[in-house]
Amino acid sequence: HDAKAPQVEQRVTSPSYCYDTGWEFSAYLSGFWPEGTGLKNEMGGGASLAYFFGHNFGFEGSYMAHGGGVAEQVGKFNAVYRFPLGGECCSTIAPYIFGGPGVVSSGPSEMLWNLGGGLDLRFESWGCVGMFADFSYNWVDQRYPDFTLFRAGFRFPF
User: What share of the chain is helix, strand, coil (3-state, %, to 5)?
Assistant: First the structure.
């Protein structure tokens, strides 16, 4: 008799169902760091609504309000591309990148462009509710300085 070939265990990691097609609502805290001297950093918060056409690609509209100063209000419309990774047990993670146009306002409004990236962590045991953190660099047309924006909060798919 010949010896049996050894069984090789293959572990397959597939994208979580938490990153399926559909809507996502996010609520978050945000921080604003302007370029240049004499300008104040500001803290604030915001909300966003996104729609994904599958595991990877979607669009997100967001609005943030900060304490005062240069970026009292920031609105953006971004294209988002995420890279869902399989998870162990009850969570999964998805790095993502995003970019697009927006508006910054503290009185008069000014157009901006932004580019950034982040990390999304979902908990299947929580009904796919998750936490996220990201950052973006924002180029403003004329009146206001360029700035960096940080967001961290919760995501609620529906």
Answer: 5, 60, 35
Q: What gap in Å lies between CA 155 and CA 141, rounded to an integer?
A: 31
* pLDDT tens string 76-121: 999 999 998 865 555 689 999 999 999 998 888 899 999 999 999 9
CA–CA distance, 117 with 113 (Å, rounded to integer):
14
What's the Cα-to-Cα distance from 9 to each of 6, 12, rounded to whole Å? 9, 10
Mind giving me the DSSP string for 49-76?
EEEESSSSEEEEEEEEEESSSTTSEEEE
Question: pTM for the complete prediction?
Answer: 0.84
Residues in the chain: 158
